[in-house]
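User: Assemble these into one structure.

Assistant: Restating your components, then the assembled model:
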Amino acid sequence: MNIVVVGLSHKTAAVEIREKVAFAPTQMEKPLREVVALPDITEAVIVSTCNRVEIYATTHDIAGGIARLKRFLADYHHLSLETLEPHLYNYHGEEAIRHVFRVAASLDSMVVGEPQILGQIKTSYGFAAEFKSSGIILNRFLHKAFSVAKRVRTETKIASSAVSVSFAAVELAKKIFGDLSDKTVMLIGAGEMCELAAKHFINNGVRGVMVTNRTFERAAKLAEEFGGKAVNFEDLFDQLHKADIILSSTGAPHFIITPKDVTEVIRRRKLKPMFFIDIAVPRDIDPKVNDVQNVYLYDMDDLQGVVATNLEQRGKEATKAEQIVNQEIGQFFKWLSSLEVTPTIVALRARFEEARQAELAKTLSNWKDLAPEQQKRLEALTAAIVNKLLHTPTTVLKQTGQGNRNDLYVDALRSLFDLNTGGPVPEDLGELEE
Amino acid sequence: MNALLFKITIGFYFIATVMYLVYLLKPRDLVGRLSHWLISSGFVLHLVFTAFRYHEAGYTPITNLHEALSFFALAIVGVFIAFERKYHIFILGSFVIPLALLLMAASSTFPSAVVPLNPALKSQWLLVHTTLAFISYATFAIAFGAGIMYLIQEHFLKSKRLGAMYHKLPSLDTLDEINYRSLTFGFPLLTFAIITGAIWAETAWGTYWSWDPKETWSLITWFVYAALIHGRLTTGWRGRKAAILAIIGFFILLFTFLGVNLLLKGLHSYI
């Protein structure tokens, strides 16, 4: 059985392509069922985030399986395979395992070390488990990926340092304001990134939260969630001077905050510093705002630049993370290969034979007056029983083709008869939290 | 004995300066504490040296450039140690202590012989007036150091290129607060120094104010810092503007202290 990965990410496809092949989280049942219904695809998990869309599947036929998954991605989203193909990558065997481990550990993220991806994969796996599209291999595989991610997070500093954009923003704020406990954050618009960054600021002790949005209800709801105050969008410039840190992510097609606005606001604040964080694309805040005295403006690119510098200084951590991934690949691959049929049959036979020989030796040593002829018969009898008992399982295991669940049987046999020759002892699989 | 003490003090200041500059490159806590210990020991020696000198001359040793520069350095180091204890920012030393070393080096180039004091100046006002003046100068030196640090850190944040030093420098807020604190200490001291100077002038020369260059420039310095404090309290001159003014103020102050003595002639010309 082979694990294959087919997908695309921010590294291979622009956002216009990515959004066309994204799967809505509310409708995962249909695509999951369709994928496992494909010929010779036994298990599947679909991961769909704003930065990547990937299918993890198991198949006996690597080339055929990959081709079918590619075609499925194109057909499902009504795209031609010719347009999609150049953006797709595929992996199988050890490379597929490495890829998924790296993705889960956030080593393949746009912002390396950002913590969201693990939760997103867990959610995706949740759907696959719910709709029973994942089986013994992918269950084990994803749990392993979660535990690898956890190891990377605890054993390296890759996630704890300023490698995520929100973390970088908080660090910058601390370099501007020192203590954040008497500062107020204002959210303009209510994007997901914005909320995340706001939460990060709240965790770091900011005192007040203000929320404004074009639809007031949305602002009120968010404000309630954060224990803050909702502000009418029209009153933005009346209230802006009360905020020290401004997180903006509206869908506005043009700048909503200009240097002129900020010059007035900062005067009203008696030049008390302000820190603007523009998460929106296209941007909400005119970059010239950064030139206003005691005002600091960072947009998404700037923050990612900061993150990149921090990452450079942490090259060591990344290497360490890759080493962890490599170790774990070895272990998992060993388990995966142990699911092969032939070695299992050999091991099973050996186990039975071992028992037969032991019992036979015991009997013969107690029964000394037995003639050689009788001994031979006894020997033949026990061998026949063992063969008979093993006949059906062996034929079932040797059947190949549609609908067979060899991997399941193999795994069961290995546990039931303690055939741990080829595979590792099942160890901590990592809890499926959240 | 005195000359030896002076040399040892310079030695300590020199090693402390080197350590503070090392701290700039390698901000290990151990380096910071070592630097702090060195500068504190140097300060104690310097204090002993100054006391000996006072004893030897019979008046506050501040009447020639050798003494005055050394006294300035002493005040800067003393005020710096107080600030470092309050804010626990070793890196402030990397910007302030080299200045003290520079002043000591300058001091050593002037003749150190004790010259008899002009009888007109023999008064307890000498101690009060000069001590006040030099402690205020020293706090302005701290504001100057913090101002430079502020501009560097602000440059990192504005240009978004966070160099290695960015992580070591304290937050803009802390630097601005140091700037503000030094002003609120230094300005009243400078005011008292000018007032005591005027009273002393009245007893020595019979007139409170005679517009000699030193007096004029002291007044200019006073106005600069008064403007800075006023701007800060009313229209909020903080951050960059405050940092720049603290730097400009310090250059004017240096001119009042040195430039007037070296370039212009007046009653204060013998210091």
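The beta strands of chain A are 2-9, 41-48, 52-59, 89-92, 184-188, 208-213, 229-232, 245-248, 274-278, 295-299.
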